[in-house]
Amino acid sequence: MKKSNIIMLIAVILPLGLFLFPLWKITLEAPQYPTPLGMYIHINDFADANPHDIKNINLMNHYVGMKYIPEAIPEFKIFPAGILITSLIGLIIAFKGNYKWFLYWFILMVVLSGAGLYDFYLWEHDYGHNLDPKAIMKFTNPDGTQMGFQPPLFGSKNILNFRAHSYPRLGALFLGLGIATSLIAYLVGRKNSKTTEQ
Amino acid sequence: MKNILKPVAAFVTGLLVLTSCNNSTKQSNSKSGALASNIAEKVYVSPGEHDEFYAFISGGYSGNLTVYGLPSGRMFKEIPVFSQFPTSGYGYSEETKPMLNTSHGFVPWGDSHHPDISQTNGEIDGRFIFINENNTPRIAKIDLQSFETTEIIEVPNSAGNHSSSFVTENTEYVVAGTRFSVPIPQRDMPIKDYKGNFQGALSFISVAPETGDMDIKFQVLMPGFNYDLSHPGRGKSHGWFFFTTYNTEEASTLLEVNASQNDKDFIAAVNWKKIEEYVNNGGGTMMPAEYAHNVYDEHTHTATSTIKKEVRVVNPTDVPGAVFFLPTPKSPHGCDVDPTGEYIVGNGKLSANLTVHSFTKMLDAIENEKFDGEAYGIPILNFEDVLAGTVEQPGLGPLHTEFDDQGNAYTTFFISSEVVKWKVGTWEVIDRKPTYYSVGHLTIPGGNSRKPQGKYMFAMNKITKDRYLPTGPEMEHSAQLYDISGDKMELLLDFPTHGEPHYAAAMRADIIKERSKKIYNLEENNHPYAAKSDADTKVVRDGNEVHIYMTTIRSHFSPDNIEGIKVGDKVFFHVTNLEQDFDVPHGFAVLGQNTSELLIMPGQTKTSVWEPTKVGVWPFYCTDFCSALHQEMQGYIRVSPKGADTPIKWSMGEDIE
Ligand SMILES: [Cu+2]
């Protein structure tokens, strides 16, 4: 097996780490929560950082009319299927494919990940802006528009008495590494093919 | 009569002289300026920081146990044990009423005395704390994960359960010795026939190693003395228990005089391992007895009370070599064993000196059968044969001794209001410091174990007088914290305590802190009337009983409108707190409630009974400020006349649309 194909094989296997480790984490800090509230987002699940955190996030959020964090969302079915399909494609490419296919796989993964991130942003936006009109507390921005409670997509932000942090976790790192490795596989493959041509 | 009064008067005058002598030292002790701020730093725990030690101070006549931090002296919690406690509904809620059941019926008050923390290998392990009830003899176990009373066992054949609840070094037994001897079994007889007819029961309550479940394994029926205090042997003397006695005269009237006649009373040394072996081989007899055993189940959040019908008793003369008497001068009160287990200090409260017995010498005297007669068939050892040494003229009215990790002992002197530090082995007095005023017990963290943590000592005083702003004729008692890390004791802090700070157990905070429970898991709530979500809420009529399955969460009750209740009904509010967040209890109270409010912890179910006597629409509400919308956490219950046909109805949020 060619060196580039071996690298490609590694690239394909790495994103499977998503099934082992969380993709993302949102943390909410406030003075009355000495242990901050936290929520892990896995490829197929929301999970408490500490026992009952999601329940307590829901309880806090209901004051401003935010919906309860759902038990499951359609993405929890679509994303794992997507990863499995792209992995299968990747495997075929790693064993049979020309190095050019490595690049196509790389592009596919970047596009899909981008779409995933955008979907995540939309979900967050809806979660933070689509508020119950009967909310117990109503807050407006200085310009008079209704205040949103969307956690940041990436980074940290103050939301009322909370400071919200949103950062990728180990699962995302595995995905990123896998994608990056496929690009390396492509570059190595191209270099090798040029050498053989000479 | 006059003949008796004269020496008493002279004695009291003597005390007054000594007491006033002592007060003159008060001036020189007051610190100010830089020195005072230096002391303040030693007890200062910055906001948000935690204390280094937990102190569990008995509430005496309040029947409870209070939790303090050291060195700050801040009070954290009051744990109800033997008394009803309207703050939380303990002893009022249906689930906790059985905790206060006894063979005499429901006893809503107790007199708690000596807390002692469970031990493993002679070291404090912080799993449980035990405490005795003096008046209606009981022993309670408090779980130090939840800081709740989880078991209470009544002690039959006992009266004035004072020489308890001390634990052996692997928590094999909690002991419960009787202060008052009584007829066993109880019967109608002339009091003047006390002598020779009354008996004192020393009860050995076994503690199951894993669960902590208590059971009275056996009682030793001793002569009719007063068994005042006790202490387990440790290290080399592990397997023995020591009890001080007074009234070896066996008087039944005017004991202040009649029980102070003998020059020496006894310390009873009991080889419990020997008796345990005897009992394990079928020894002793089962005797009819009636006593309650109350157990709180953390999963059903409910206590059950079982009345037991018999107890195993042992006649000490049936187990040769198990019980001996050590003569000890004058009405010894405290009975304290040093961390090595070699020395047994008998604090003769009417004696000028402090007597210390040697365990090694005691064994030697027993081996060589050097007896000085017997009492009711129990051998009496020779005073000189067992004496290790005497602390000469240390003060007036020695009561209790504790030990540090440097081989020093600290004894309280009630009459001269002071703590005296002396060296174990040389018996020389090293230091003395006044206390304010009339000190009873003192505590050193870990002092009751083989490994005392000799950094602090605190004295618990019976009289407060001018120490704080006056609060009318009644003052809370006080405790005084001393730094004992140096040669000289240094008074650091003076803090009020709640009830009577009779005795305390203290230990390093870290062990307990890490294991402390934050919530009850809702999934593990097996209360038969729990509603684990709003969908489970309902109102069920059963004859004239109505059961309301209710939930609380920030910031509403479900249901919050209830109809169909009638005058004469017995309404059970079963309230489940759905919260799963640390320190978010909800309260419950309904207008005209004849019991008490409830405080329901996250994940817990508690039940309050309400028997409405008046027609109307009555509000109920949350009594614990729980959230920004706490005031809105309320509901109504409609009460119709007796015989009305108002249907049962319940709802929450229905009219909003
Ligand atoms: Cu509330």
From TrEMBL, chain A:
The chain crosses the membrane at residues 7-24, 78-95, 102-123, 170-189. Keywords: Membrane, Transmembrane, Transmembrane helix. This is Copper chaperone NosL. It comes from Mangrovimonas cancribranchiae.
TrEMBL record, chain B:
GO terms for cellular component: cell envelope. Keywords: Copper, Metal-binding, Oxidoreductase. It is found in: Cell envelope. InterPro entries: Copper_CuA (IPR001505), Cupredoxin (IPR008972), N2O_reductase_N (IPR011045), Nitrous_oxide_Rdtase_Sec-dep (IPR026468), Nos_propeller (IPR041114), NosZ/Cyto_c_oxidase_sub2 (IPR051403), WD40/YVTN_repeat-like_dom_sf (IPR015943). Its EC number is 1.7.2.4. Its main location: other. One of its GO terms (molecular function) is copper ion binding. Pfam families: nos_propeller. NCBIfam families: nitrous_NosZ_Gp. This is Sec-dependent nitrous-oxide reductase. The gene is nosZ.
